[in-house]
Amino acid sequence: MDNLNENKLLEECCEDLFGIRIDPPERRDKCDKCKRPVVVCWCRSLPNPPLNIKSSIVILQHPAEEKRTLRTALMLQLGLEPGKCIVYKGKRFPSSKNLAELEPVLNSPNSLLLYPSKDSVPIECVNTQSVSMGDLSFESASFTLVLIDGTWPQAKAIYASSPMLHRMRQVKLIAAGNSDYIIRTQPTEGCLSTLETAAQALSILERRTELRQLLIRPLHTLCKFQIDNGAVEHQSKEFRIKNQQYPKQIGKRLNRLLNYSTICRPEAVEDNIVNEIDAALQQQPQES
Ligand SMILES: [Zn+2]
């Protein structure tokens, strides 16, 4: 290559470089909607247009939940028509900040708290019960589903410090199946993320089986991306303990085991699981 050509090539390279410099400094561009880096944005998997539902959803979110990178409440919000899913943040509800908005919702006979208390009934029973009791007719009514979003200990603490929640009609999901949310280790079989819980409850309440699948698609996209990029597909802790694959440190404390997103199980079932896990731990070969 002679000097002339070499200079020309250099010039072209410089032009390219200058071209690059004109652009703003490189940073990890984030999607405006999901706030994820654009390369891993899951918005393309959202229902389009957003789903129109009869019910509304209110999420009572523990402040720490918002900081999780794999949070799912936003997927629910973006999958539904604007205003159909409202998130309130706090450690007890209502608070002075949201009293005016929340009090009527939490006191309404058409609001259902999805929480596995002793008084909760399977969500499938909601219509039947109302009809057989000759109570208010819920056939044409639209419901507000209220969910607590946080780890299980956080959800329990929110419930304990929010007396207004205790007086609500309470429902639960039974035989919910395993979570699609395989990235965050789930402590027990049947444990669901907030998105899955809401999607499943909506499907049942509105008698529209397609709702669940449509709403959880972004979760599949997110999980697939994580797995393609080397995240291990977690089996639940319960499964691994049963199969004696769980490392010894799990024995440190069971409350860490219960560190999972809100799940709708009756307390009694939860106690059984804890006992089962205790038993499994004792059977594990002791290593020192
Ligand atoms: Zn996005």
From TrEMBL:
Keyword field contains Hydrolase? no
Q: Could you tell me which SMART domains the record lists for this protein?
A: DTW (SM01144)
Q: Which reaction does it catalyse?
A: a uridine in tRNA + S-adenosyl-L-methionine = a 3-[(3S)-3-amino-3-carboxypropyl]uridine in tRNA + S-methyl-5'-thioadenosine + H(+)
* TM ranges: none
Q: Which InterPro entries match?
A: DTW, DTWD2/TAPT
Q: Which GO terms describe its biological process?
A: tRNA processing
What is an example of a GO molecular function annotated in this UniProt entry? tRNA-uridine aminocarboxypropyltransferase activity
Enumerate the UniProt keywords alphabetically.
S-adenosyl-L-methionine, Transferase, tRNA processing
Does Transferase show up as a keyword for this record? yes
Every DTW domain range: 27-231
| Top EC category | transferase
In terms of domain of life, where is this protein from? Eukaryota
EC number(s)?
2.5.1.25
* Protein family according to the UniProt entry: Belongs to the TDD superfamily. DTWD2 family.
Protein name in the entry: tRNA-uridine aminocarboxypropyltransferase
Question: Which organism does this sequence originate in?
Answer: Ceratitis capitata (Mediterranean fruit fly)
In the UniProt record, the gene name given for this protein reads DTWD2
